[in-house]
Protein: Dihydroxyacetone kinase subunit L
Amino acid sequence: MDTRAWIERFAAVIDERGAELTELDRRAGDGDYGTNLRSALGKVRANLAADDPRTPGAVFTAVSDAFLNTGGTSGPLFGMWFREFAKGLGDEVTPRSLAAAAGEAEATVRRLGGAEVGHKTMVDAMVPAAQALAAAAERNADVETALKEAAAAADAGARSTEQLLAKRGRASYVGEHARGVTDPGALTVAWFFEAATE
Structure:
């Protein structure tokens, strides 16, 4: 599994579709999400070019550092999420290392942000993706299968946010106005796992 190529595909998707995220955030928040995300990924590219990381852990450390130095509430949360991938993957991507990393990562975000599944946040995609990876590892599926199942679970989780009433984040301030809007953070998580499967 070439994690650097995975991150570069993810960044390319955000370049291409970031305006969709900004529009979702404009309808349910303050409209700066897509801009902050593109800014973070610009820093990711700079870090990857400067550090030339050779292991999955080093790649995700470069990603994490970029997000931790980005504004908005989602930047630091994604930064901590990616930090757990850096720690969990280390030198090799296997179904078990992915499952362990994703499990620690979503638990960290839930602890820091106070969000749970059903609160209309990135957690709605992170948790099912982690559960899918754990299930795939348990039955000794290969990495490709595990990531495809994680992507499908994250996508279903992101779609589920559309009709939820937000309990956390800026969308919670606009109440019913955010109903009918997919959470941009959850959608980002879905796109992240999808990028791993292409």
